[in-house]
Specification:
This protein is α+β, with helices and mostly antiparallel strands. It folds into two domains: about 120 residues, no CATH class; about 190 residues, Umud Fragment, subunit A, CATH 2.10.109.10. The protein has six helices and 15 strands. The strands form three sheets. Strands 1, 2, 3, 4, 12, 13, 14 and 15 form an eight-stranded antiparallel sheet that branches. Strands 7-6-5-11 form a four-stranded antiparallel sheet, with no helix packed on it. About 30% of the residues are buried. The model has no long low-confidence stretch (mean pLDDT about 85).
Length: about 325
């Protein structure tokens, strides 16, 4: 088995190949340099996270490639240099065996990433303009997963054997949430919670009424949208809910079909949601309908705008 002997003997060419293909952490573990391997693993993940924050306009795969290429080259050169100096552990340590390398440097990081993404925080790119100006198309946002508890919608594959919801608190009026509409269970929507269970919600001439009281609304100038599907300059309005939450909305068209609606009575266990772009949002006024509490699985926390800069979502 020349192929396996070639890598078991830790030849310089084997070090170069492993460094180029698998990165610095793996090649250092292969050479028995455990502390350096851990350092590279932590450094690579830190730089990757910073790169995601610095370049939110790029896809995750692109950012991963931009980070991996230089680090793999560094790992290749560093590993070869250690080999030439003889600064390697010639006796195979427990962590330098192939199955332990796979466990510690492949499987474990995947489990950690899955756990963080499922139970703590998940990144999303914003594809549409239904939540403008709060979430602009092309923005990169982080959604916390622990606010409203955990259930089947916390998982990307949404297993039926997982209970609909465990633990967590209830969504509050004004929260910008990630949800799954009952009508399209394979699609995620970003919306703002407006109506709580038992509330009555209605739109009159573009103004939101909750339990018969109008939501205060004032003009705040205009915004220029460069979104290809919704370009133009649109008026911005500020709204303030009864719990003090203040946010901005867009009013693209006068007398649009969503500006005047019937009164909606929100059932127990359900919520009424709206998009901040009131004239270009599929929400509880239309096909989305009332959203079950179990279908709301995340709260928007941080957004990085495509033109640069970031802000907390409110």
């Amino acid at each position: 088995m020349r192929f396996f002997r070639f890598f078991r003997d830790r030849r310089p060419l084997a070090v170069i190949i492993i460094g180029l293909l698998l990165g610095p952490a793996v090649v250092m573990a292969y050479l028995g340099r455990g502390r350096i391997a851990i350092s590279y693993l932590l450094l690579t993940n830190l730089v990757g996270a910073l790169a995601v924050l610095a370049m939110p306009q790029l896809a995750l795969v692109t950012v991963a490639g931009l980070v991996a290429v230089p680090f793999n080259l560094i790992g290749c050169i560093h590993g070869y240099w250690l080999m030439r100096r003889g600064a390697v552990a010639w006796q195979h340590r427990w962590f330098s065996r192939w199955y332990n390398i796979a466990l510690l440097f492949w499987l474990l990081p995947l489990v950690v990433a899955f756990t963080i993404r499922t139970f703590i925080i998940q990144p999303f790119s914003i594809p549409s303009g239904s939540m403008m100006p709060t979430l602009m198309p092309g923005s990169y946002a982080f959604v916390t997963k622990f606010n409203y508890g955990y259930g089947r919608y916390s998982f990307s594959f949404r297993p039926n054997w997982v209970p609909p919801k465990l633990f967590g608190s209830k969504p509050q009026r004004g929260d910008v949430v990630m949800l799954v509409p009952p009508t399209t269970p394979n699609v995620d929507y970003a919306k703002r919670v407006i109506g709580l269970p038992g509330d009555r919600v209605q739109m009159k001439n573009g103004i939101v009424f909750i339990n018969g009281q109008s939501v205060p609304r004032d003009a705040e100038g205009n915004i220029v949208s460069h979104y290809s599907l919704d370009p133009g300059e649109f008026p911005v309005f500020g709204e303030v809910l009864d719990n003090g939450v203040r946010y901005q909305t867009l009013d693209e068209l006068p007398n649009s079909r969503g500006d005047n609606t019937r009164e909606y009575s929100v059932p127990e266990g359900y919520y009424f949601v709206l998009g901040d772009n009131r004239d270009n949002s599929n929400d509880s006024r239309f096909d989305v309908g009332f959203v079950p509490e179990a279908n709301i699985y995340g709260k928007f926390w941080l957004v990085f705008r495509p033109e640069g800069g970031w802000s907390f979502v409110h």
